[in-house]
Amino acid sequence: MEIRFQNSPKETSRMNTAELRSNFLIEKLMQDDQVQLVYSHYDRVIIGGAKPVHQSVELPNHPELRADYFLERREIGIINVGGAGEVKADGELFSLDKLSCLYLGKGVKQVSFSSKDAAQPAVFYLLSAPAHATHPNRLFTKNDAQGGNMGDQATANKRTIYRYIHADGIQSCQLVMGLTILEPGSVWNTMPAHTHTRRMEAYFYFDVPAEQRVFHFMGEPTETRHLLMANHDAVVSPPWSIHSGCGTAAYGFIWGMAGENYTYSDMDAAPLADLR
């Protein structure tokens, strides 16, 4: 499990491209028949990927957690962006089609991932945060999620939002999680931008065509930077940073948050005219 520490706004404003990528970009998150994990000291979230192809893979424990098992003091959100798959949690089997979300609460001891068809493997994105209480395991399909259509084709940001883990959906201690799908011809997400200093955020981009890229914008509103993102890349967004993107084609992305505030709509607007 890779460990990443925090970076201050002042430090980040002086980083070159390679330094920005090494601190905030997570590449190659999905590896065949493996679980990849990155521990971020922003609100101590763990960002991960599991791609079972030819065999089942288990959620590992790591000595850095000082725990008897991964979810001893944690909760986790799991969203499948690939073919049909299954997650087994302490013997209970959950089937996840594409864009289904599974929440597993504190205290689940054994978690494994598998695909129903090796030719179309499941691709599970994972986001975990510390938990102080136990909430029930729960599965949502995209039809169960709250959200709706937003944006307009005229501004190239027509999109559909699916909210899974939040105050009015799947209950959790501090995880908030969902995803956004852009319509063909739309490329902008989360613009006008915002920050929320009470919680960090992570983005995971999917359904990005192999020859296309997404420009992910980050940094303080008056000190913006960008990262070039490929399919199945993730990015850590500090609480002081904007998080917005523009692609060379339509795409989808999973957003997830953890921190002090559990309210989805808690945002500090960064007006477009004020960005630098």
Automatic annotation (TrEMBL):
This is 4-deoxy-L-threo-5-hexosulose-uronate ketol-isomerase. Catalyzes the isomerization of 5-dehydro-4-deoxy-D-glucuronate to 3-deoxy-D-glycero-2,5-hexodiulosonate. HAMAP family: KduI. It comes from Deminuibacter soli. It comes from the Bacteria. Pathway: Glycan metabolism; pectin degradation; 2-dehydro-3-deoxy-D-gluconate from pectin: step 4/5. Its cofactor is Zn(2+). It catalyses: 5-dehydro-4-deoxy-D-glucuronate = 3-deoxy-D-glycero-2,5-hexodiulosonate. It is an enzyme of class 5 (isomerase). The keyword Heme does not apply. Zn(2+) binds at residues 194, 196, 201, 243. Belongs to the KduI family. Its EC number is 5.3.1.17. The lineage of its organism: Bacteria, Pseudomonadati, Bacteroidota, Chitinophagia, Chitinophagales. Gene3D superfamilies: Jelly Rolls, pectin degrading enzyme 5-keto 4- deoxyuronate isomerase, domain 1. Binds 1 zinc ion per subunit.
